Structures are given as structure tokens and as C-alpha cells.
Amino acid sequence: MMDKPFDNKVVAITGAGKGLGRAYALYFAALGARVIVNNRRHPGERASSADQVVEEIASTGGEATAEYSSVESPAAGDKLLAAALENYGRLDCLVANAGVVEASSFRKQTLEQFREVLEINLLGTVNVVHPVFRHMCKHGGGNIIVSTSAAGLFGEFGLPAYSTAKAGLIGLMRSLSLEGRPRKVRVNAIAPYAATQMTVDHMSDDLCADLDPAQVAPVVAWLAANTASGEILVAGGGKLARARMKISQPSAAAKMAGDEWQTLCASAVDAEYDSAGQHFEAFAASLKPG
Predict the structure, then answer these.
(1) Which member of 24, 27, 88, 162 is catalytic?
(2) Quick check: is 162 catalytic?
(3) How confident is the model over 111-135, as pLDDT tens digits?
(4) Pick the CATH number of 10-243 from 3.40.50.2000, 3.40.50.10140, 3.40.50.300, 3.40.50.720
(5) Domain boundaries along the sequence of the chain
(6) Global model pTM greater than 0.70
């Protein structure tokens, strides 16, 4: 018999009609959670993808409710929270998964096209997280997981807006993890590698078989059940890595050329800081003689 650590817990997942979001919804339901399955309705659909996932969960004895807001709507977060409270009386975890990808170099994009990607991937996540974060801070805690990407960590050619949005979510996550800490609200990020509708065209069949979205779901559930906060976990294909921001120790900047630049490039990037303020204190201390 499967252990159900999420019994009586309520989890809301955006973009849960397919791909990674669907995998997360099915996994949380199998662990006993009651799930708010968010996915926008698409024109011409006879049954929405959110409804289909709800039916899948119900067929195995789980509980779930469909919610159809588009995350780029400023009201999306309020509607998602209301669906959780009205149907189940609580919200313990939010997985802000919804997103879109792009395929364009920056020089060939219009600013409107760039903004459209930000509206969904960055501001769409903000729209959903903001009311949920406030609610959790007021009502004793909870877990929020945002979906970033290796593109947010490292950048990628042809993904300028997507990389910008996903890097922005790392900054949001880190900031909220600090703000939420005294109120028992934990905020983390998942950077998934998975074969989904967004990625299969860029992968071989063998790689797609190795990168089942279901293999990311246990990592997301672990983040939702534990005390970690401020973490970026890279997961896919049964593998897991931890990503962190690191920085070298400051050195003299009298002449940023020649040997000085080569020395700086070769210096160890091995210091970690919990916040920007903590790094500034260390940086300021390095200015003092001795």
C-alpha cells in the first residue's frame, strides 16, 4: 500500500493539463493530496485538458478540481486560491508550473513578442504567487515551488525572453524565501529536464524515453514536504543536481586589463551568500585595510 504523506493537504498546480504539470498533479493525488488542476481552456476544446486530468485522478479514487484561469490574467492567483478555499478549505502548496517557450533570436524579435513571453513565464507566475504567498504568510505557512530552467541559469541562444523570465523567477524565489522564512513559508525552484510538448521536437526518441515528466514529480513533492527553502534543484531522468549562485572573493580593480583580468578570471568562484545584503557586508569588509 502506497504511503500517502499528503493526506488532507491541498496542492494547486498551474499548467497542469499536460506535460510536467499533469505529471505533478497525478503524483500528488497518488500521495493523497487534493489537487487544484489549473489549465486554460483552448478554443474548440470539447473537454479541457484540466477536466481530463481531474477525471484521471478521480478514476483512481483521488480528489481534484479543475480551474481554468490564464496565468497572465492579474486575477489568476485570486481565482486559484478561491478554488482551493471554496472546495477544500485550505491551500498547502502551490506549484507555479505554467509557461511557454519561444524560438527566436533577439535581433529578429519584436518587443511585443518578447513581452508576450515575459507576460506568461514571469508575470504569469507573479500573478499566481502573489495572493497565495500573502495567504500563506497570514495563515501559518506553506510551500511554493516555481518552475525555472537551465536557460534561466545559463542563458540559451534563441531563447532570450524565456531565459530572461526564468532568471527573473530565480530572483523572485530567492527574495520570497527570505521574506517567507519567519512565517514558515518555504519557496523553492525546480529546473526540470523532461520530454513534453514544448521540448520533444528538439530531442531524439531515445532521449525522450529517458526524460519522462513523471520522473521529475517526486522531486517536486519532496520540496513540497520538506523544510528546504531558497533552493534550485535540477531534475530529470532520475537524476538530481543542486544549483547555487557563487562568487569569487573581490580583488583590486585599479586596472581591469591584462594580467589583472586574467587573475580575476582564474580566481576561485567558491563563496556563497544567503542574500544580497549578506554579500554586500562581506564586500564592504574587504574594503577595509588588513
Answers:
(1) 162
(2) yes
(3) 999 999 999 999 999 999 999 999 9
(4) 3.40.50.720
(5) 10-243, 247-286
(6) yes
